[in-house]
Target: methylmalonate-semialdehyde dehydrogenase (CoA acylating)
Amino acid sequence: MIEIGHFIGGKRVAGTSGRSQDVMQPLDGSVRGKVALASAAELRAAVENAKAAQPAWGATNPQRRVRVLMKFLELVHAEYDELAETLAREHGKTIADAKGDIQRGLEVVEVCIGAPHMLKGEFTDGAGPGIDTYSMRQPLGVVAGITPFNFPAMIPLWKIAPAIASGNAFILKPSERDPSVPMRIAELFMEAGLPAGILNVVNGDKEVVDAILDDPDIKAVGFVGSTPIAQYIYARGCANGKRVQCFGGAKNHMIIMPDADMDQTVDALIGAGYGSAGERCMAVSVAVPVGQETADRLIEKLIPRVESLKVGPSTDSSADFGPLVTKEALARVKGYVDTGVQEGAKLVVDGRNFTLQGYENGYYMGGCLFDHVTPDMRIYKEEIFGPVLSVVRADNYEDAIRLPNEHEYGNGVAIFTRDGDAARDFASRVEVGMVGINVPIPVPIAYYTFGGWKASGFGDLNQHGPDAFRFYTKTKTVTSRWPSGIKDGAEFVIPTMK
Ligand code: NAD
Model:
């Protein structure tokens, strides 16, 4: 049994609130250990620590700061396998997929090694007579991140790396469902040379989140999770005068044009729809074949592929996907499948009764496939976050593009086609933040930015890429004059460039 407290002031500390929660192992439903749930007082201790450590870190030159990131990469690579194993055991995804979770985080760390360049200001020599204007990016001070269960390495790293590279101190509130990897990440950063207090991990639930949102010393909050919580955090954090960016839920469509290569499309759809048991914010959950003939061909090829998906424990290297994260998540997803049947969608593959011999208490279900889903159904409107794919048949391209455009969510979308003109029109007109052209999960590479539109994102700056440096720094603009002397006397008219 593992006991997880918090990481404050450069070391692991036990929780003192008296509240804790079980950390489960989804693959067999056993209890792995307990995680402490922090009180507001424990959060305050972390903030005090961070506040004391930040000025010296902020004053350290950026090239020295990023050497810590370089060393951190080396340390993670040395224990990649152990980290992936821990991640898979607490989350439920396969070990191969857990490695991808870590890798997509490391790629952002790699890009943040370029922070000295990203943090450069602007300079105009001779903006006026004897006047120079320049801008600089300064750290905000103490900043925080609140992250979801589904990428316990990647999303914390997307926030930690640009925040600390920019000279801030960071407080992470990871998901209470899979806290071990975020705790180890903090420890590895210390081993890499990060000063104590610059990265703190405070475990907990709503109580500590509210304390973060109300703490006057926390200047910015980055959140990733479900849309109702994203909206709540955005509203409360903004009302308290903080800089807030919140990324929420999704319902990602994949449009399949009649000219798409159907074998490639089905391969892409199977991986994007069912990988990680559909527990990805960029998972494809709606397939939109254009034309009845395309739909029939798609369904015919999809059915045997969904039926033959291999569900297994996270430790089985031949499994396509593992269990869902909790018993409640399993019940919720199965409940959605029941709802879809009641709403009149045609369940052509039913994975609800799947059990795995030897792992009867694990949170498993097989892949489900719905045909003839319509936009008025709850299974279309709401995020299911499980291995359930809905096929919505569209008569033509305009009907197809209208679906993601009118959907409440706008995280990711894809079009599969051989026609450059259709692809180009789609990329230009679709009302969604991240677009794939023959790419099913268009998560942008680390030096571009990641963010959804509409109910999938709140705030004006995206994650990683240049936006991350804008989010974690404030701009100061200096207008400087070194007069040649005092002979010109006082000026009473506003200076202009006329
Ligand atoms: P969640 O919203 O339940 O939890 C996210 C975080 O918020 C956790 O740290 C949790 O402790 C905290 N939290 C939960 N309830 C709270 C409350 N009432 N008050 C304050 N804080 C609270 O999300 P989850 O189940 O961990 O993650 C899955 C969701 O995250 C899905 O909706 C998925 O689409 C979304 N997600 C979005 C992105 C993106 O970039 N848009 C990426 C990954 C996941």
